[in-house]
Write a structure and sequence with these properties.
By secondary structure, the protein is mainly alpha-helical. The protein folds into two domains: about 35 residues, no CATH class; about 55 residues. The chain has four helices and no strands. It starts with 6 loop residues before the first helix and ends in an 18-residue tail after the last helix.
C-alpha cells in the first residue's frame, strides 16, 4: 500500500531525532518539572490574591490615617476613643462591660 505524497514528509519529521527530543523536553517541562504548568497556575492565582489583599490594606491604611488625624486634633475624641476601645476610665469611676450573648 502506497502512502499519499503529502504524508511521507510529515512522517519523516515526526520520526526525526530532533522532533522527538523537542517533544520529550516539552512534555518534561510541562508535566514532570518542579515548576510545571500546575505549579505556575497556583503561583499565578496566589499572586492575584496577594494583589487584592494589598489593595485592601492600602485602603485601610488611608482610613486609619484619617481617623488618627481626627483623634489627634481633638482631646475629647481621643478620650472617647480610649474609653470605648481600651476600656480606660478616670480615677474613681467604675466601668461596666456588657457583652451581648449571640443566639446559637
Amino acid at each position: 500500500m502506497e502512502l499519499p505524497s503529502f504524508i511521507r514528509p510529515v512522517l519523516r519529521v515526526l520520526r526525526s531525532f530532533y522532533f522527538l527530543t523537542g517533544l520529550s523536553f516539552l512534555v518534561w517541562m510541562l508535566v514532570f518539572d518542579a515548576n510545571d504548568l500546575g505549579k505556575q497556575f497556583d503561583i499565578y492565582r496566589k499572586w492575584k490574591d496577594l494583589r487584592s489583599e494589598k489593595q485592601y490594606y492600602l485602603d485601610n491604611i488611608e482610613v486609619v490615617k484619617k481617623e488618627r488625624a481626627e483623634l489627634m486634633s481633638s482631646p475629647a475624641l481621643l478620650e472617647k476613643f480610649a474609653r470605648e476601645k481600651y476600656l480606660m476610665k478616670r480615677p474613681g469611676e467604675d466601668v461596666f462591660v456588657l457583652v451581648a450573648a449571640t443566639p446559637e
